[in-house]
Structure formats: C-alpha cells, structure tokens
Amino acid sequence: MFEKVEAFYRPANVREALRLLHSGKGHARVVAGGTDIVVDGDDSVRFLIDITHAGLSYIRRRGAAWVIGATTTMADLEDSDAIQALAGGLLCRAARSCGSMPVRNLATLGGNMANGSPAADMATPLLVLDAAVVMVDARGRRKLPLAEYLAGVRTARDAKSLLVEIVVPDPPDGKGCRWSFQKLGRTAVDISLVNVSAGLQLDSRRRVKWARIALGSVAPNPMRAPGAEQRMTGRTLDRALLAEIGAAVAREVSPISDARASAEYRREICSVLTRRALEECSTPEGCAL
Ligand SMILES: Cc1cc2nc3c(=O)[nH]c(=O)nc-3n(C[C@H](O)[C@H](O)[C@H](O)COP(=O)(O)OP(=O)(O)OC[C@H]3O[C@@H](n4cnc5c(N)ncnc54)[C@H](O)[C@@H]3O)c2cc1C
C-alpha cells in the first residue's frame, strides 16, 4: 500500500495545496480522512497531500444556502444543529449511516464525493437538495451542479483541482417539504447495496406539488430519477401511485451484479426503498422541514 510514496505534505491553505498538487506532475494525490484512498492503495502515487489543515472544515450560511467545507467530517455533520435543522435532518441521517463511529470521525464529505463511488451515501441526499460543488484549480474557482461533478469525477482522479466546498441551497419549495433517506447494506456499518433519498411536497388534498428521488449504488453514478419525479407530479399520492412509482424507478436504474448483490435484487430493492421513502415523506411523522 503506497509503497512508492516519497513525501507526505500537510499544507495550511488551499493555495499551497494546489501548488503541491501541480508540482507532483500527476503523481500527487489529495488525502482527507484517508478512509477510501488507503483502501485503494494506488501504486502510482508518489506524494500525498493531506488537506485536513487547509481551512476547509466549516458549515456556514452564505446567502440563501448552507455551505459545507470539503473536509467537514461525517461526525461534524451529525453534530451540527444547522445541518440537523436542514431538510428535516436528511444530511445528518445519511452521515450517521456511513460506517462506524471511528470511520465517521475521519471520513469527509468532500472525500465521499471526490472518491466517485456509486454507493457514496451522501450523494443522494445532496442530489435531492439540488446541491452544487465548488472546485478550485490554477485558473480559479468554479461552481458546478453536483450531478455534473459526479458524472466526471472518476475519470478526473489525477486532475489538478480541489473540491473545496459543497453548496446546499435552501429547499426550493420552502415549508411543508418532507424528506427521507433509506439505505440497505449487508450490515449496519457497511456501504449501501442500494440507498434512496426523497423529497416531497403535498398539497392539502395529497396531490404532489414537488418531488425529488435519487438513488445510489444502482448505476455508474448516484442518480436522480427524473421520469418517476415527473410521473407523480400533480397526482394524488395513494397506494396505487406508490406502487407505480416504485416500478417506474426500477426501470430507470441500471444496477450491476457484484459480490454484494445481484442486479435483479438491487432493482427490486430500488422499488421497495423508493416506496418506503415516499411513504415516510407523506406522513406527518416523516422528517418535516
Ligand atoms: C470500514 C469502512 C466503512 C465505510 N462505510 C461507508 C458507508 O457506509 N457509506 C459511505 O458512503 N462510505 C463508506 N465508506 C467510504 C468512506 O469512508 C467515505 O467515502 C468517506 O467519506 C471518504 O472520505 P475521506 O475523507 O476518507 O476520503 P479520502 O480517502 O481521503 O479520499 C478519497 C478520494 O477522494 C480524493 N479527495 C478527497 N478529498 C478531496 C478534495 N477535497 N478534493 C479533491 N479530491 C479529494 C482523494 O484523492 C481520494 O481519491 C467506508 C469506508 C470504510 C473504510
């Protein structure tokens, strides 16, 4: 594991981290909590750049959004009153599901996104919240939608850019939205076989005003299910619609079979967890905003 690493750096700011990343000429790699990269153990890496002292651990209000620094850990998210109050605690709930407590004390939100795993548990709640990421490189800062970032991140592993923060806008439809995070793993501390996040707003007659559904571990990247979202908008949420949306979601995903589960099982679980998520969102007891 990392047998060819020649130097380990701990820059005190983002500018220094970028300089080190450039000087590594493709052989430098960022490390945050280390809980993914150490498992990967890439032999082409010569320089490790620890960004946990680069000033990227924060949860701040900026305009009509919460901004979360890339090295904010899962434990920080769980403990934050602001994140607990955001979208009924959706992000806290997902963070709490990421491995064991020792893992959550190290694992960062930025690392969870930058690692580019289809099973990253923080991706689906951030997708239903319409989150964006802020990247910096030698040319400056740029903000891009999370879905766009996730689509390219695996191929850009050695890119000379840093993910610096995640921007979570206030939920678009304001009060009355309800949220759910559902996860099935082999054990309580394992990564997802499937995870589903949902956001839902119903009117007084249980008609769907606004819907978001995102699924993890069932496609090359965590994904929204726009077909299912559109199908339910404007319709009354009842058992028949829940079953219809469960089936629609199963058609939108493209799971693989691996050591953890077969594609068929994952597809079935997509339906089950989506129905469960929407049911939770539609009850007064569901996590309310
Ligand atoms: C036992 C165990 C259980 C786990 N359980 C779960 C689980 O239930 N759910 C889940 O989602 N994950 C789980 N994980 C995976 C892991 O903990 C998370 O994905 C974690 O959030 C990764 O963050 P990190 O800070 O440790 O990333 P690191 O390992 O430090 O980095 C991961 C990758 O991202 C890059 N990177 C990190 N930060 C940045 C940045 N700011 N900018 C650019 N590139 C960056 C690194 O170069 C590396 O390629 C588990 C891991 C272990 C070991």
What overall form do the CA principal axes indicate?
globular
Strand order of the largest sheet: 4-5-8-6-7
How many strands, what sense, and barrel or not for the largest sheet?
5 strands, antiparallel
Order of helices and strands: EHEHEEEHHHHHHEEHEEEEEHHHE
General description of the model:
This protein is an alpha+beta fold. It folds into 3 domains: 7-50, Uridine Diphospho-n-acetylenolpyruvylglucosamine Reductase, domain 2, CATH 3.30.43; 59-169, 2-Layer Sandwich (Uridine Diphospho-n-acetylenolpyruvylglucosamine Reductase, domain 3), CATH 3.30.465; 178-288, Enolase-like, domain 1, CATH 3.30.390. It is 34% helix and 25% strand. It contains 12 helices and 13 strands. It has helices spanning 14-23, 37-40, 74-79, 81-85, 90-96, 101-106, 109-114, 123-128, 146-152, 226-232, 239-252, 263-282, and strands at residues 7-9, 28-31, 47-50, 59-62, 65-69, 132-137, 140-145, 162-169, 178-185, 192-202, 208-216, 223-224, 287-288. The strands form 3 sheets. A 5-stranded antiparallel sheet has the order 4-5-8-6-7. A hairpin with a 5-residue loop joins strand 10 (192-202) and strand 11. Helix 10 runs antiparallel to helix 11 (239-252) and helix 11 runs antiparallel to helix 12 (263-282). The longest helix is centred in the last third of the chain and has 20 residues, at 263-282. The protein is globular, with a radius of gyration of 19 Å. The protein binds flavin-adenine dinucleotide. Flavin-adenine dinucleotide binds at residues 29-37, 39, 51, 70, 97-99, 103, 106-108, 110-112, 114-115, 120-121, 157, 162-163, 191. Flavin-adenine dinucleotide (FAD) binds next to strand 2, helix 2, helix 6, helix 7 and strand 8.
